[in-house]
Amino acid sequence: MLSARSLFQEILDNDESFRLFCSIAASGESQGGWENARIAALVPRSERGLAPKITRHGADEDKHGRIFHALLKKRGLSPVPVPADTDYTMILERHGIGLAHERLRADRPLTVPDIVTYLAHSRVTEQRASEQMALLRRYFADHPDVGRAVRMISGDEDNHLAYCHEELLRFAAAGHGRTIQRTLRACALAEIRIYRDVSLAVMAHMGRVLGWPRAKSALLAAGIHVVYAYERAAGWRRMVSLRMPERRNALGGPATPAPEFA
Q: How many angstroms separate the CA atoms of 35 and 28, rounded?
């Protein structure tokens, strides 16, 4: 029977598919680390209190990239080049979601609207990351190889999402509510389309690596399209709501160190 658990297990059990999975994940996390580091360096003077939290966010993302590389090393594997059609982070950037990399490379302070855009983009993408890691934690929290990594990354993603909610609510109270809702909606609708396309690409690459029969690949593709149809109709709304999180000041301390993988 085809299920999320059996699909992930198949990917984890095969060295080549595991290499591809970890390489894609590490690349996206490392890119997120760079983006947050640049944003922290360019925060406007009026919002300098946010800089340590943004720095912590970036440090967490860098840590996740190192964790995925460590998982590869533990199995005696090296990373592989990330196929362009699976590069979720860069595809979002090319479609104008979040702050453009050209802007982040300039040594010019960001504006408050730029920070609102960053937080809205992060609120949407961290929702996705939190949900994905919760799924992996559900099935593999006790896995002998990836369990510790899954638990740590999942906790971090939940913290990132809580931080986005809290800071966006602060900006909304300061008069940015309409801009926040408009930006969240645009980001969410773009993200669900890009997530669909990237998911189809990842499954196509995995199918070739694992030798899936055409019927299995078609079934998985159909499932991805069903998820997209739901998200396009109503599911996107979960990405734009804002509520005060139970975890207050979730990024108020230093990043936790990555676990050792012997």
A: 11
User: 102, exposed or middle or buried, with CB in 10 Å at 0-12, 13-18, 19+?
Assistant: exposed
Q: Give whole-number Cα distances, 102 to 40, 137, 145, in Å.
A: 16, 36, 38
Which ranges of 75-111 would DSSP assign to H, the alpha helix?
88-94, 101-105
- 153-79-91-201 Cα dihedral, nearest 10 degrees: -100
Token pair in block for residue 107: 């040594």
Contact 170, 115 (CB under 8 A): no
pLDDT tens profile 200-209: 999 999 999 9
What average pLDDT does this structure show over 60-71?
Answer: 96
Find the angle CA(97)-CA(101)-CA(104) to the nearest 5 degrees: 115
The residue with tokens 């591809």 is 20
Three-state DSSP state, 208? helix
Q: Is 234 exposed, middle or buried (0-12, 13-18, 19+ CB in 10 A)?
A: exposed
Whole-structure pTM value: 0.94
Q: Provide the token pair at 41.
A: 């360096």
Whether the Cβ atoms of residue 37 and residue 55 lie closer than 8 Å to each other: yes
